[in-house]
C-alpha cells in the first residue's frame, strides 16, 4: 500500500499543469458546460495516464531502458521543481475556481462546444503525459494491478476534488516538496538499477560488470 500511496502522491503533485489547462479550457465555455468539461477533462487526463503508464511499465523491463527512464525522471524532477517555484498549483487553483464560478470567465452565449474543449484538453494532456507516466510506472515497477489501483484512486480524487487538491497544494507547499523528494528517490533508484541490475542494467548488458540482483522488480 505504500507504493500505491506513492503513486497517488506522484500523480496529484504532477497534476497542476493539467488542472491549469482544464480550468482554462472550461472557463472559455459558457457557464452551463463548465462542470461537465472539468469532470470529463479530469477523467480523460487520468485514463490517458493509465494507458500510457501500463505501456511504459512494460517497456521498462527492456534491458537498458531503465537507465534511460531514470535520466528522464531526473528531468521530470527538475520540471516539477520549476513548477513549484513558479506557483503552477496556485495558477491551477485560480483557473478551476474561475471555471466553477458562473459569474467569472466567459459568460456569454455558447460559442464553443464541449467536444471542442475536450479535444483541446486531450491534445494538451497527450503532450504533457510523460512526467506522470514515468513517475507512476517507475513506482509500480511492473505491477500493473498496483499501477491501475493507484491511478484509479487518483482519478476519483482529481475528478471530484480537484479544487480542494489544488487549494491544499497551494496552501501547504510542503506537500509538493515531499512529493518531489519521493520522485528524486525513485529517480536515483532507477539510475542505480539501470546501471547495475543483472537483468536490466547497462553495465551487465555491455559486459562491463557482472551486475547485482536487486530485491525490487525481481
UniProtKB/TrEMBL annotation:
Keywords, alphabetical: Membrane, Transmembrane, Transmembrane helix
Q: Does the keyword Amino-acid biosynthesis apply?
A: no
Give one Pfam family, short name only.
TerC
Its topology with respect to the membrane? Multi-pass membrane protein
Q: Which InterPro entries match?
A: Integral_membrane_TerC, Integral_membrane_YjbE
* Residues in the signal sequence: none
In which compartments does the protein localize?
Membrane
Q: Where is the chain membrane-spanning?
A: 6-25, 37-56, 62-81, 146-168, 174-192
Q: Per the record, GO CC terms?
A: membrane
Q: Which family does it belong to?
A: Belongs to the TerC family.
Protein known as = Membrane protein
Tell me which species this is from: Seohaeicola zhoushanensis
